[in-house]
Every structure is written in structure tokens, then in C-alpha cells.
Design goal:
This protein is α+β, with helices and mostly antiparallel strands. The chain contains four helices and six strands; from the N terminus they run H-H-E-E-H-E-E-E-E-H. Strands 2-1-6-5-4-3 form a six-stranded mixed β-sheet, sandwiched between helices. The two termini are 23 Å apart. 24% of the residues are buried.
């Protein structure tokens, strides 16, 4: 099942970069939860739930960024139901025009062939550690 989970995450990242809300909705469970450090207003991060998660997330990101995208995704099998993703987020600040490039990590939890949880980390090593992998 692990390779299937890795492929699921790869397809989800591709849909994410296309901003394909229909495809993204098909990749997640109804009780999906995504904790994002990029939209955090506090130490807990921005949390998005359910079927509206992606629509709300993209809206929040677009308020802060003129343009942004995920590049160079590395998707790693974390065993059982977990997958780690290492990515670069590249964008331009909406108000500052500052060019930004961030390395970050993500942990995906897969249940019954769909994403049930997703958590992003400002430190890619933290995502690897969360799934039991070392950098």
C-alpha cells in the first residue's frame, strides 16, 4: 500500500499546483484536516477542514501572495499510512513584491486510499522526523 500512497500524494501535489479544486476534493476524505504553517496567525498554524479546505486555503494564500507555487516535490514513503513531502514554495509577496523561496516539509496521512490529514512544517527535517525518517 505504501507505493500507492506515494503515488496518491504525487497526484495530489500536481492537482494542487494546477489549483484543480475538483481533483483535490476527490483526493480527500470528508473529515480531511490540513494544518498550514504558511497561513498561520499563531504558533498552531492555519487549520482547514472538510470539503471547503482547499477553497479557503487558496483564498488565504492569495491574500498574502501575488503568485506562488510548489516546486521540486520529493515524496517519500513513511510506512503504513504516512507519506512525507519535501518541497520548495516560491512566490511573490502581494504587498511587498518580495521574492520568497521557502523549503518546507509536509506529512500526509492516508486512509482508505484518500488523504485524511496533512500537516506542513517550516523545517523539512521535522516532517521527516514525524514519519520516522532521517534527513
Amino acid at each position: 500500500m505504501s507505493q500507492e500512497n506515494v503515488e496518491l500524494v504525487r497526484r495530489a501535489i500536481e492537482a494542487f499546483n494546477r489549483r484543480d479544486l475538483t481533483a483535490l476534493a476527490e483526493f480527500v476524505h470528508d473529515d480531511f484536516e490540513f494544518v498550514s504553517v504558511l497561513t498561520a496567525v499563531d504558533a498552531e498554524g492555519g487549520t482547514y477542514r472538510g470539503s471547503a479546505a482547499w477553497t479557503t486555503y487558496f483564498k488565504d494564500m492569495d491574500e498574502a501572495w501575488k503568485e506562488w507555487r510548489v516546486e521540486d516535490p520529493q515524496v517519500l514513503d513513511g510506512g503504513e499510512d504516512r507519506v512525507a513531502g519535501l518541497v520548495r514554495v516560491v512566490g511573490t509577496g502581494r504587498h511587498s513584491d518580495a521574492q520568497v523561496e521557502l523549503s518546507m516539509g509536509l506529512v500526509y496521512v492516508v486512509r482508505d486510499g484518500k488523504l485524511s490529514r496533512m500537516h506542513s512544517y517550516a523545517d523539512p527535517a521535522a516532517a521527516l522526523e514525524a514519519v520516522g525518517l532521517k534527513e
